[in-house]
Write a structure and sequence with these properties.
The protein starts with a helix and ends in a 6-residue tail after the last strand. It is globular, with a radius of gyration of 15 Å. By secondary structure, it is of the alpha/beta class. It has a domain at 4-66 and 113-175: 3-Layer(aba) Sandwich (Rossmann fold), CATH 3.40.50. The model has no long low-confidence stretch (mean pLDDT 93). The strands form three sheets. It has a six-stranded mixed β-sheet with strand order 3-2-1-6-9-11, with helices on both faces. It is 28% helix and 24% strand. A hairpin with a 4-residue loop joins β7 and β8 (129-130). The longest helix has 16 residues, at 20-35.
């Protein structure tokens, strides 16, 4: 089995090789699946990543949450910790750690009634996840174990098997442009 580092490199190259139109169409299909899913429909709000480097685009999900009067929290990395802060507009964000848009102000938002929408570099059909290696999401979710979790990925990011460790936290659902695992 490939090691995590090799999988990360291969998947990131594959994502970056996507044409803009393909990326937009597949992102839209994935977002529509999530927005129609009961985990999203019944949530009071979402804690959601801001996409970078051809990750599944999350702007459609964020807009849908606002349209449904749901709270939206996006992550801010501070040292070795990640916390989520409420935003009510994309104007309340600016590039931060790793060049990812982070909240510029806002109040810290907590997990009660929220759906976590998490990124990943690669997954398998058992929903094992390889992230970027810093462990921010695993640490946050370990502190909030009852929070429902949805991961978004393109179908090519779902491999037969990925290396998993005991501390890795799996999503409840994994949504691609063609299915929900």
């Amino acid at each position: 089995m490939e090691r995590k580092r090799e999988i990360r490199q291969r998947m990131q190259r594959a994502r970056l090789a996507m044409q803009k139109q393909e990326w937009m169409e597949k992102s839209r299909a994935i977002c529509e699946r999530l927005i129609a899913h009961p985990l999203f429909l019944h949530a009071n709000g979402i804690l959601v990543y801001m996409d970078m480097k051809n990750e599944v685009c999350t702007k459609q999900i964020i807009r849908a949450a606002w349209e449904q009067n749901k709270k939206v929290g996006i992550p801010k990395v501070q040292g070795k910790r990640m916390e989520f802060y409420e935003i009510c507009s994309f104007n309340e964000t600016a590039p931060g750690t790793f060049g990812v848009c982070e909240p510029t102000a806002g109040k810290q938002i907590f997990s009660e009634g929220m759906l976590m929408v998490m990124p990943g570099v690669a997954f398998d059909r058992k929903k094992n996840r390889i992230g970027y290696g810093a462990g921010y999401y695993d640490a946050y979710l370990k502190a909030h174990p009852d929070m429902p979790k949805a991961a978004l990925a393109f179908e090519f990011q779902v491999l037969r098997e990925v290396p998993a460790e005991e501390h890795d936290i799996r999503p409840d659902i994994l949504i691609t442009e063609s299915t929900i695992y």
